[in-house]
Amino acid sequence: MKASDYIVSYLYERGVTHIFEVIGGMITHLVDSADRHGKIKLVSVHHEQAAAFAVHGMGYSTGVPGVAMATSGPGAVNLLTGIGSCYFDSVPAIFITGQVNLSEQKGTRKIRQLGFQETDIVSMACPITKAAMMIQSAEQIPGALDEAFRIALSGRPGPVLLDIPMDVQRMDVPGKVEVPKSNYINEYQDAAALNVIFNAFNQAKKPLILAGGGLNSALSVPFFRHLVDLVKIPVVNSLLAVNALEYNHPQRVGLIGSYGNRWANIALGSCDMLLVLGSRLDIRQTGADVLSFQSERKIFHVDCEEGEINNRVQGCFPIQADLRSFLPMAIEAARGGAFSDHLDWQDEIRQLRKKWPDTDEIKIDQGINPNRFMHELSLASKQAIGFVVDTGNHQMWAAQSLDLGSEQKFITSGGMGAMGFALPAAIGASFASSHSPVVQIAGDGGMQMNIQELETIVHHKLPVKMVVLNNHSYGMVRQFQQSYFHERYPSTYQGYSTPDFEKVAQAYGIQAATISQTGESVQRGLSQLWADPTEPFLLQVEIDPMINAYPKIAFGYPLTQMEPFIKPLDMEGT
């Protein structure tokens, strides 16, 4: 079998339904094989970065590795930001790059390049992949594909890159396509540790669970919810676990971290026992004052990677486990158990939430309150499979205030924090759910970074509901400049401009509208957004350029001390 035919057939047998690509000379064999195979949909996007972000959206939605292909040189290099996003957020993905013929590679010659567009993408990708491999013969291909999927799916998921020279793609692969049946889950068996955790729950006066993004990476949100219903412990969530519990779940507290809901950060700072599930406790979750975060509380840290436990935050009870195995065992151990209801603690959290509502953190005399708008957008968007959110202040408002339903997803670029993520990732998420409607939320800056993918949405008739919060600035960095650079705003507000996104969308043939006031204007815009759930629509939301994202941890203080009431001790470095 021709090697490129083998690769496509193998991908199909592994459950791959779409390949995102930008055509180039070194992948023409692969693209032709996919076209002739006919059972995997080729999605031709308009920039390789968008292909990689679409893979992120698809892999995060399904747990099946998304696949993107790019030609050698600039095509392969353009994938790197999206590859890094998959790596940092634990998204399974397979990236296949074409390479120049074996005879055209420089090898050990002391030259920069031999073949046209020859580029050592393997060396570039190594730091941001679980594995990156150059294929040098057709005989390597079956084993390399098996290994790529095993690595991408085992342990902490992530991306794998295969670089395949063009002449290898047209060679013959002996034998037929065979896909191994494998279980990539490491079984957890330490029942004694579970007893320690459950005893700590009952002994604590203020126990709390921190839900991290690992729950989504492990496809374990349903198990997590079952466990929470059994133990009835309040739950806070990190940015990558906004969907861990539906908005109205009785145990849901809210977002924690740098821009966390104030009441949730206070609850986290007040708890005397904490169970961390799939969160690495980075600085944006704990604040810079790590000693204050540790305090005297008992912390049980569950993570599949040993290096993440007792890393920044010391003294944790370590449990190295795959959540796909740990949570089912915890559920079995919790069944029939007697757990304290902690009514006083639950009431304390309710009072904190009542005292510090998210919609009152920003004082606005006129115009649209972003937090209030997120609630209204959520209520209007119950038909959406979820929300795909770009990077910036709008990301924080969305994480603070979206009212997610039980089946809705929240997808964003966490570790990489890449602007331009949301539009292509929403494309991937919509394809992953058979053209179901998805809401994309972006700022004006991020929207411009992959705006060419509006044509992909039109071409494939994807029902992506695009919401652009246009504050005519790079708002998060402008807020940083306000705090630390004496309100000088070069490149964020001064020297920066935006187009009229309504007109841009219409130029692509997408219906669009703009809102700029509260009340009837917002409701009118949301009605237009959802007038036809099967069609794309862009809603431009004009907001004040000087609106900040609050609350925000005052850098150098414990996470309970938040702006604007407390000023930072020092300039934040992350």
Total helix count?
24
Strand tally is 20
Largest sheet: 6 strands, parallel
Beta-strand share of residues: 15-25%
Would you give an account of this structure?
By secondary structure, this protein is α/β, with parallel strands linked by helices. The chain folds into three domains: 167 residues, Rossmann fold (3-Layer(aba) Sandwich), CATH 3.40.50; 165 residues, 3-Layer(aba) Sandwich (Rossmann fold); 191 residues, Rossmann fold, CATH 3.40.50. The chain is 37% helix and 16% strand. The chain is built from 24 helices and 20 strands. It has a six-stranded parallel sheet with strand order 2-1-3-4-6-5, sandwiched between helices. A six-stranded parallel sheet has the order 9-8-7-10-11-12, sandwiched between helices. Helix 1 crosses helix 2, helix 11 runs parallel beside helix 15 and helix 17 crosses helix 24. The radius of gyration is 24 Å and the shape is globular. The model has no long low-confidence stretch (mean pLDDT 96).
